[in-house]
What we know:
Oligomer: single chain
Amino acid sequence: MASRVAVIGAGPCGLAQLHAFEEARRQGAEVPQVACFEKQSDWGGLWNYTWRTGLDEHGDPVHGSMYRYLWSNGPKECLEFADYTFDEHFGQPIPSFPPREVLYDYITGRAKANNVRQFIQFDTAVRWISYDEKAGKFAVTVQTRDDGRTRTEEFDKVIVATGHFSTPNMPSFEGFDQFPGRIMHSHDFRDAREFAGKRLLVIGSSYSAEDIALQTKKYGAHSVTVSYRTKPMGFPWPAGIDEVPLLSRVDGSTAHFADGTARDVDAIVLCTGYRHSFRFISDELRLRTANVLYPDNLYKGVFWLGNPDLMYLGMQDQYYTFTMFDAQAWYARDYVLGRISLPSREEMAADIAQWRGRLAKCAGPFDEIDFQASYLADLHKEVDYPSYDIDLTRAHFKEWEHDKTASITGYRDRSFSSPCTGTIAPVHHTPWWTELDDSMATFLDNQA
Length: 448
């Protein structure tokens, strides 16, 4: 068994990994020394909201992409911890689509209950990770950001849990350099009220574009134009939001699109995705992938093919989130503890190819939901993570897809049943489209 393990990041993935080790320790297992390095001053990863954009107080790129008024865009029942339910945490059933403050409280609630904070070194940035073949050890160089001091420590295993939604993909379009308004990436979006009364152009056609278009209109934008590259999202948008083909150029305040239409806009938000960026990892260990449901070179979606003692958590495109991170963390833990043995490199490569071949045959969201649910089920077969009804979550996700198509402003008003407890969520007291208060106190007061 490894004697020292580094966990990089204390967001949902890193906290899942620390929790997995603590559960093993609580059950009497011998657990190696675990050190978690977190760049931010508190835990929660992307859920650790900050007003800062660009560079943080230490001159590093701001990690967080979280914004005020964000609500879950998927049923909470599909991300519920099997060993720490929403009912247990809040002491009451809560609606299916919580705002960010509620989800942050839930994520960190489990971490507090298992006292994993003791393993986290905050304000400590990982600057470089390399591997010494002769010593069979990883060298991890970290910097304590308050005093700028660096040190290098040796580890037997490294688990990268930094996520991949913090380095924005930033395209450029003709005329951007002369545009008189604000141009920003969704990574720097913080408050929808900034665009009240403005004519907003949103470029993108995925979850960020969908939600920022809705949020800004909800909080008073004059109009929102959504520009897509390949095909429109096609939702029944409320008045004031519409979709057009890709932006071709900007002339002053006038945006011109591929279909020959044009309109004047006051601000532009690029919802153009994120890059998997691991500049702190040496080339031969660095994951390079697009945002897909099964990245190449990761056995079981976790173990780096070139050196399985390096593990990556949460690097997939995601329908499932917290429950997938838990499954990966349990599997990684059991490998570290010697409970799971990995096959030969050739067998691992063949397994990766099989999963990626299956992914290539997916024809749409329903196939993708089934694909990722099957991936979770495959991980669960080998570990002792508490059971829950994965098939129910598949059904919930598919119903959620239908709900969004029926009402993009009303799907968050639906309720779902827990795959862990069977509890049916209450309906929130105020329709999401008219609920301007996203505080936890208001949300939990279901009698308001």
